[in-house]
Amino acid sequence: MRMSSGLTFKSTKGSWIRNLRRQCSCRSVEFFVPSSPPLDPEKVKELQRFITLSKKLLVMTGAGISTESGIPDYRSEKVGLYARTDRKPIQHGDFVRSAPIRQRYWARNFVGWPQFSSHQPNPAHWALSNWEKLGKLHWLVTQNVDALHTKAGSQRLTELHGSMHRVLCLNCGEKTPRGVLQERIKLLNPTWNAEAQGLAPDGDVFLSEEQVQSFQVPSCVRCGGLLKPDVVFFGDTVNPDKVNFVHRRVKEADSLLVVGSSLQVYSGYRFILTAREKKLPIAILNIGPTRSDDLACLKLNSRCGELLPLIDPH
Ligand SMILES: [Zn+2]
């Protein structure tokens, strides 16, 4: 990880942050994390004050917290998926309506799954999990579907857009682990060897038309219905009960910290509006501008995994 060599910090547990840098150093991380200025010690102190004063902290995370785990975000300048590729996210309506689109989606998802599911939490995820254990965190809301907060042990957690680690039957509503489906797909496609085609560095998958057309799409074991990852695709809406639940957690909170989100998507931004109505202090940690910079009392353009472990949650 890139960090100014002129600055030295001690983490809350007393270990030098240099050790942390060694843990996180890998090329894929450099590839997906936007460039940022060196940590500003004054800003670190300001965030520390913000966290110390907070007794019921709500944290909302977005794709920016996972780039240091090697998962690209969508919107970051130069390194986000929108900047680097012409890839469009799948639309919910297309997925539901079109068998060929589902076939292509599941074929690519099958090939990409071993890499996607292998991503691990980074020090930012671990820091937030630690804050929860120490009673600092009132609630954690994530817009991510990568399950990295769960892998880090967070429990006071709402996955606003669901999780790629679960599969939903659109007919009977049964939810099953994605890993189980991987084995079923292998059995359904014994001669299908697209994995040999390999993956791009960001986990994207290239498949020929022939490969896609020979791919057998699994259906629900219980009712034969259509299967979809248990995530909110573009063009779909978040379950209203889940939205109301998060609104209540925001209203109970005394401060809000945004981590790694540009807040461009309304499903997350609406909670900022609720926080503003409640006049909660808002701090934002995100590399690059966000939709709510003008509402924040503190804005930090730093890497989540470098900054959050420096904060003492007591
Ligand atoms: Zn079913």
Automatic annotation (TrEMBL):
GO CC annotations, alphabetized: mitochondrial inner membrane; mitochondrial matrix
Additional remark text: According to some authors, ADP-ribosyltransferase activity of sirtuins may be an inefficient side reaction of the deacetylase activity and may not be physiologically relevant.
HAMAP family attached to this UniProt entry: Sirtuin_ClassII (MF_01967)
Keyword terms: Metal-binding, Mitochondrion, NAD, Transferase, Transit peptide, Zinc
Biological classification of the source: Eukaryota, Metazoa, Chordata, Craniata, Vertebrata
Residue positions of the active site: H161 (proton acceptor)
Record-level GO BP terms: DNA damage response; glutamine metabolic process; negative regulation of fatty acid oxidation; negative regulation of insulin secretion; negative regulation of pyruvate decarboxylation to acetyl-CoA; positive regulation of lipid biosynthetic process; regulation of glutamine family amino acid metabolic process; tricarboxylic acid metabolic process
Organism: Ictidomys tridecemlineatus (Thirteen-lined ground squirrel)
Gene that encodes it: SIRT4
Annotated NCBIfam families: PRK05333.1
Enzyme class: transferase
Binding site for NAD(+): 62-82, 143-146, 260-262, 286-288, 304
Subcellular location: Mitochondrion matrix
Subunit: Interacts with GLUD1, IDE and SLC25A5. Interacts with DLAT and PDHX.
Entry cofactors: Zn(2+)
EC id: 2.3.1.-, 2.4.2.-, 2.3.1.286
Domain Deacetylase sirtuin-type: 37-314
Function: Acts as NAD-dependent protein lipoamidase, biotinylase, deacetylase and ADP-ribosyl transferase. Catalyzes more efficiently removal of lipoyl- and biotinyl- than acetyl-lysine modifications. Inhibits the pyruvate dehydrogenase complex (PDH) activity via the enzymatic hydrolysis of the lipoamide cofactor from the E2 component, DLAT, in a phosphorylation-independent manner. Catalyzes the transfer of ADP-ribosyl groups onto target proteins, including mitochondrial GLUD1, inhibiting GLUD1 enzyme activity.
GO molecular-function term, one example from the UniProt record: NAD+ binding
Residues that bind Zn(2+): C169, C172, C220, C223
Main localization category: mitochondrion
Family assignment from sequence similarity: Belongs to the sirtuin family. Class II subfamily.
Manner of cofactor binding, per the entry note: Binds 1 zinc ion per subunit.
The keyword Zinc appears for this protein: yes
UniProt name for this protein: NAD-dependent protein lipoamidase sirtuin-4, mitochondrial
